[in-house]
Amino acid sequence: MVVKVYGPVYASSKRVLVCLIEKEIEFETVPVDILKGEHKQPEFLKLQPFGTLPVTQEGDYTLYESRATMRYYAEKYRSQGTDLLGKTIEERGQVENWLDIEANRYNPPIYTLTLHILFSSLFGFTPDQNLIKESEEKLAKVLDVYEERLSTSKYLAGDFISLADLSHLPFTQYLVGPMGKENMIRSRKHVSAWWDDISSRPSWQKVLHLYAAPV
Predict the structure, then answer these.
(1) pLDDT in tens, 41-66
(2) pLDDT digit string (tens) for 133-192?
(3) 3-6 and 27-30 beta bridge pairing
(4) CA angle in degrees (0–180, nearest 5) for 96-99-177
(5) Residue among 30, 43, 161 nearest 94 (CA)
(6) How many CB atoms lie within 10 A of CB 27?
């Protein structure tokens, strides 16, 4: 059954898309224009009561949290495509550990930077320079931890690519691209090598080619 992914140009939806491509799962996409408020319309709210992206549908089964969706499809289609969960319970534990670190430590500051640097004008608010500075400092501390981890491990969960790595792709792409803060990655030798590795994967290159970011 084809998986339907709503709002493919936005970062959180791209987490899901890169996972589906790695798992060789057939999908189709449905555009959602946040700037026009389509995510707050009654029909969309029937799918996602919080009015955010992504939303995925497979038949009558709906999910709308990106990391939960990645976990679900990586498990459901475990026998095909790239194994993104690890081969042992210990490896799975590390995948979950670093996926939670991405969600709770890495994503909050990089999301704030993205919102205030790239999207403030689109959403009509003045960027908070103090918050930008604070978020950059928080992100730098997280990246220092990553640098230490990646000095002894090819990927975050071990010597295998996993959901934990893929989940970093969309917002880090903003960081090194339109945000102009590539030095935060390049100034850390092991983080830089890791980024080159994961961002050059055909799955991510396909996502970038097919679904251009809104900024």
Answers:
(1) 999 999 999 999 999 999 999 999 99
(2) 999 999 999 999 999 999 999 999 999 999 999 999 999 999 999 999 999 999 999 999
(3) parallel
(4) 160
(5) 161
(6) 17
